[in-house]
Write a structure and sequence with these properties.
This protein is α+β, with helices and mostly antiparallel strands. 27% of the residues lie in helices and 20% in strands. The protein has a four-stranded antiparallel beta sheet, covered by helices on one side. It has a four-stranded antiparallel beta sheet with strand order 2-3-4-8, with helices on one face. It binds a DNA duplex through residues 1-3, 6, 33, 59, 97-101, 116, 133-139, 171-174, 177, 180-182, 189-192, 235-236, 238-241, 258, 278-281.
Length: 290
DNA sequence: AGGTTGACCTGGACGC
DNA sequence: TGCGTCCAGGTCAACC
């Protein structure tokens, strides 16, 4: 599901509902293909931790936590160990990737536990933070280091036109594949790639390197415009995406090509085509996009 | 090297 | 109501 606008919507919900709260206990299910850290490690970092902030990096949710100081170690540790511990990072990160069907929900404890709930964090305020993911393509892990968590790729909403143009220089791959490549831009997925290419008037199969300066200028503007409009609409709920409070987005109402195969182009009336590019369903107007 | 292809999963929609 | 098939917002490892 979730591409940049959906993840941004979840992050904003979490900022409002869980920042400043403390995680009192964590329950983790037995479906371990979701975990990139061991359940033990995740529990060790999160148990008793205070939630200092929530951020988005591409499609990743980054939850900054202040782990609880481990008082039990005091009794036996040497001076040298104690010194080492004080230099350990004060902040750790809890990283969540929603995959295709992941949800991060803030609920009350009474809320019925959905099928495919894989993690529940009980908060001091009485709320619960739950991770639900039917297909289990999502990922959860904790990151502890001074450098903090980092990913490749540039944020599409921050990139300048010049840097944007450089990403595609010399690339023979279809422009759509390049837009989906998270090592170049982080956060654009299948829906917003198609919608951006439509608005820029560029065919998805065009080789990235063949885009003219003017194509790039229009595409850069289109990507930022589509993402901003989608964020303002709370993301796209095509089937099951919901925000942190279970609310659906409504940007799907404004899709111009995604999911509209056979329907008339809103600009010229030509039937929208659906093809496969880079293994993904790809929608475009054969007349408006060159 | 860089790009395209299956594998990973469950469930919903559709056709018979 | 019950198959069986296809498709899905993402990302890897494995293959040219």
């Amino acid at each position: 599901v979730p591409e940049l606008p959906e993840v941004e919507t979840v992050v904003r919900g979490l900022q409002k509902r869980v920042v400043g709260d403390t995680i009192e206990s964590v329950w983790i299910g037995d479906k371990s293909n979701l975990l990139k850290s061991s359940a033990l490690e995740i529990a060790r970092v999160l148990d008793g931790a205070r939630v200092a902030g929530v951020r988005r990096m591409g499609k990743h949710i980054v939850i900054d936590v202040h782990p609880k100081p481990r008082a039990s170690a005091k009794r036996t540790r040497s001076k040298r160990v104690a010194a080492a511990e004080t230099t350990a990072p004060r902040t750790a990160q809890w990283i969540v990737h929603l995959g295709m069907t992941g949800k991060m929900l803030v609920t009350t404890p009474e809320t019925e536990t959905e099928k495919h709930t894989h993690l529940i964090a009980q908060l001091a305020s009485g709320k619960e933070l739950r991770f639900v993911d039917p297909r289990r393509f999502g990922k959860i892990w904790v990151h502890e280091s001074d450098e903090g968590f980092a990913t490749a790729g540039t944020e599409p909403l921050h990139i300048t036109l010049d840097d944007f143009a450089k990403l595609f220089r010399g690339r023979k791959t279809p422009i759509k594949s390049a837009l989906l490549n998270q090592k170049l831009l982080r956060g654009v997925g299948n829906i917003y790639a198609d919608e951006s290419l439509f608005r820029a008037g560029i065919r998805p199969r065009r080789r990235a390197a063949t885009l003219t300066r003017d194509d790039l200028r229009r595409l850069h503007a289109a990507v930022q415009e589509v993402l901003k409009e989608a964020i303002a609409a709370g993301g796209s709920s095509v089937s099951d995406y919901v925000g942190a409070e279970g609310e659906r987005g409504f940007f799907q109402m404004q899709h111009r090509v995604y999911g509209r195969e056979g329907d008339p182009c809103l600009v010229c009336g030509t039937a929208i085509k659906k093809i496969v590019v880079a293994g993904r369903g790809t929608h475009y107007c054969p007349k408006c996009q060159k």
